[in-house]
């Protein structure tokens, strides 16, 4: 059974003692870059959406449309704040993951 899943405790490939942290650094760096790009795009999209909703709020003709636009604007601003907080704390999160995985 150990041969099927390559669980034999041999030195070299397949053992935890030979884990290459260089590949881990590349993987963590790639994930970090993708997350920064994704959160950056989401933040830009949320700001554009907030501008569109603010325009709808200021040009609303009746009170029901204005109330709906105000609620949407509040949600958009909360989303922007959440994304900015994630962008601020992302380096700390990546450093925590890297240190937990054993990368120096």
The percentage of residues in β strands lies in: under 5%
**Low-confidence region ranges:** 5-16
Which class best fits the helix and strand makeup?
mainly alpha
- Main beta sheet strand tally, sense and closure: none
Shape: rod-shaped
Please bin the fraction of helical residues: over 70%
Radius of gyration: 23 Å
Question: Count of DSSP helices?
Answer: 3
What does the average pLDDT come to? 79
Q: Could you give the count of β-strands?
A: 0
Distance between the termini: 35 Å
- Order of helix and strand elements from N to C terminus: HHH
Number of structural domains: 1
What topology does this entry show?
Elements: H1 2-5, H2 21-58, H3 63-101
Structure characteristics:
78% helix; mainly alpha
Your description of this structure?
This protein has helices at 2-5, 21-58, 63-101. The two termini are 35 Å apart. It is an all-alpha fold and 104 residues long. It has one domain. The relative contact order is 0.13. The longest helix has 39 residues, at 63-101.
Short overview:
By secondary structure, the chain is mostly helical. Helices cover 78% and strands 0% of the residues.
